[in-house]
Amino acid sequence: MLVHIPEVLTPDEVRYCRDVMRRADWADGRITAGHQSAQVKRNLQLPEHTPEARELSGLVSAALNRNPLFMSAVLPKKVFPPLFNRYDAEGEMNFGSHVDNAIRTIAATGERVRTDVSSTLFFASPDEYDGGELVVEDTYGTHSVKLPAGDMIVYPGTSLHHVTPVTRGSRVASFFWTESMIGDVTKRSMMFDLDMSIIRLNADHPEHPSVVSLTSLYHNLLRQWAAT
Ligand code: NI
Questions:
Q1: 139: pLDDT confidence band, cut at 50, 70 and 90?
Q2: Which of 132, 191, 199, 214 is in the most buried spot, having the most CB atoms within 10 Å?
């Protein structure tokens, strides 16, 4: 299940973040890579302990907390503090095919996060760079993703994915993982479909008695399946 979440950040927030990133010192992206992915990872990253990375990470986390579509699609239990990366045309930076590590430890707290859902939030608009598509292979085939600045894609942490070489400009993004209250992707995806159907029904026929019964069904299923 890939879900496009538009306008996670406002244009002002995108601009502000990019200004901060321009002033920051970038490091080799292999600092957070596992053994297999380190061999195919060619990009830059903001080291997570720097003041710039911490500030921007907080800003993105706050934006996620106010986003109902993210809440519905991901049902977050723990969110790994967002990280930031950059792929430049110089060196045709890219990230070969890999699967993200199953467990991530938050350095500051030692807390472990199971990476049920991966997210990429785009900071550069598609016309600023060539290449740099996020390509995700899931059970429904291969999806190539390149979104407007401020938009985000969420996809299953279980999927193989890669970023194609950037051949012009720079691709700047935030990426992070979420442990969901519902680890099983099939169940999580059904909950999302149910929630979206209830929202549509409520918009079109707010007086319909099924709005109440389906909402009740949604919450009772969540109670059955959620691990909090
Ligand atoms: Ni990855």
A1: confident
A2: 132
Same domain, yes or no: 192 and 146: no
Domain boundary among 180, 200, 215: 180
Distance 13 CA to ligand 1 centre (A): 24
Q: How far is the CA of 129 from the centre of ligand 1 (A)?
A: 20
The answer to whether residues 77 and 181 touch, using CB atoms and an 8 Å cutoff, is: yes
Average pLDDT over residues 181-195: 97
Q: Tell me: pLDDT of 196 over 90.
A: yes
Cα of 101 from ligand 1 centre, angstroms: 8
Q: How many domains does the chain have?
A: 2
Let me know whether 81 and 163 are in one domain.
yes
Which two three-digit tokens encode residue 155? 């996809």
For residue 83, the CA-to-ligand 1 centroid distance in Å is 12
Measure 137 CA to ligand 1 centroid, in angstroms: 12
Q: Is the pLDDT of residue 146 over 90?
A: yes
Which of 131, 123, 169 lies closest to 148 in space, CA to CA?
123
CA 216 – ligand 1 centroid, Å: 36
Is residue 18's pLDDT more than 90?
yes
